[in-house]
Design brief:
It is a single chain. By secondary structure, the protein is mainly beta. The protein is built from no helices and ten strands. It has strands at 2-5, 12-13, 20-24, 29-31, 35-37, 43-44, 49-52, 55-57, 61-74, 79-92. The chain is elongated.
């Protein structure tokens, strides 16, 4: 799975903010790195913030990986820190 922030027009990703993606795997699911921060980002600049999530399941089924994502988007004059819930669907055949 992938968790991505693409800021709207007039906004940019705050590259100095202590971003953090925290995931809670359900029973039967293993996440390679359940807590990811700046150094773990696949891409981290003013236009994109991307975290790749590598998860495996012990058996077939559909799983919901829930978590929280902390980041900030800014304009030249204001900054808006966010803590948003995330959910990644994992389907294993």
């Amino acid at each position: 799975g992938v968790v991505t922030v693409v800021p709207g027009k007039g906004f940019h990703v705050n590259v100095d903010f202590p971003v953090k993606l925290t995931l809670e795997p359900p029973a039967g699911v293993t996440i390679e790195k359940a807590v990811q921060e700046k150094p773990d980002a696949a891409k981290f600049d003013e236009n994109n913030l991307i975290f790749n999530v590598k998860a495996t399941a012990a058996s077939a089924g559909t799983y919901a990986i829930k978590g929280k994502f902390k980041f900030a988007v800014c304009t030249p004059s204001t900054c808006d820190p966010k803590m948003v819930p995330v959910e990644i669907a994992l389907a294993v055949k």
